[in-house]
Amino acid sequence: MNKIVILTGAGISAESGIETFRAEDGLWAKHRVEDVATPEGFQRDPKLVVDFYNARRAQAAEVEPNAAHIALGRLEQEHRGEVVVITQNVDDLHERGGTTRLHHMHGELKSALCAACDHRWAAPLVMAPHDRCPACAAAAARPDIVWFGEMPYEMDLLFQHLSEADLFASIGTSGNVYPAAGFVAEARRGGAHTVEFNLERSAIGNQFSEHRIGPASQTVSAWVEEILAR
Ligand code: APR
């Protein structure tokens, strides 16, 4: 099991205190996706969208990585083979948990993007609509988040990692959103053993060879111990 590729979703940050999207009291119960997570929503009401991400950026700055993030950081440090984390999350808890080989396929709260020239810079804690780009000075700053209808980042590289995986783990994602929900099939095609970590089987649970049901802070820590003891 030398190359391990791990996909994470909102469930890995839940025990740190960041709400998920599709729980009863989740983000999509309080906000309409089309208003705060689409390019059209941003065009229609940039202040609503910028404030939505300001609130999530402030919340992410208040919470701490949990045992699952820290276990994945340890796995990367101590595993003999390659460990690559692909996250759908936009918080920085993986970084703060010690993971360095990390791909934010849906962008990140700590980054800002210029819609005019594609320049990226460290986002201020509070962004305002029409903030100016530090590179081209256009009033075209936006959160560096991949919205519905936009292409996730680094997809060719991510599919390369998936095809090389000996072991693929999916942690805390409902399997509702593609292309991430298609990663397990890609990893299986490359011959990987696949394991799903969740509180219950997800919408794509039947595609995994193994399931570890329970809170990620417990199940991921135990799994990492097992791997490092091999
Ligand atoms: N431990 C393990 N799994 C958990 C935990 C926990 N403590 N708490 C919740 N979960 C699981 C839930 O059972 C659910 O399957 O995490 C999953 C969270 O699902 P979603 O809320 O749909 O979040 P996610 O799968 O990351 O959403 C994917 O959708 O809205 C878009 O871009 C957004 O990146 C997001 C994408």
Specify the CATH class of the largest domain. Answer: Alpha Beta
Task: Choose one word for the global shape.
Answer: globular
Please give the CATH architecture of the largest domain.
Answer: 3-Layer(aba) Sandwich
User: What is the CATH third-level topology name of the largest domain?
Assistant: Rossmann fold
Radius of gyration: 18 Å
Distance between the termini: 10 Å
Mean pLDDT: 97
Describe the structure.
This protein is an alpha/beta fold. It has two domains: 139 residues, 3-Layer(aba) Sandwich (Rossmann fold); 79 residues, 2-Layer Sandwich (SIR2/SIRT2 'Small Domain'), CATH 3.30.1600. Helix content is 36%, strand content 19%. The chain contains ten helices and nine strands. A six-stranded parallel beta sheet has the order 3-2-1-7-8-9, sandwiched between helices. The longest helix has 17 residues. 40% of the residues are buried. Adenosine-5-diphosphoribose binds next to helix 1 and strand 8.
Question: Brief overview, please?
Answer:
The chain is built from ten helices and nine strands.
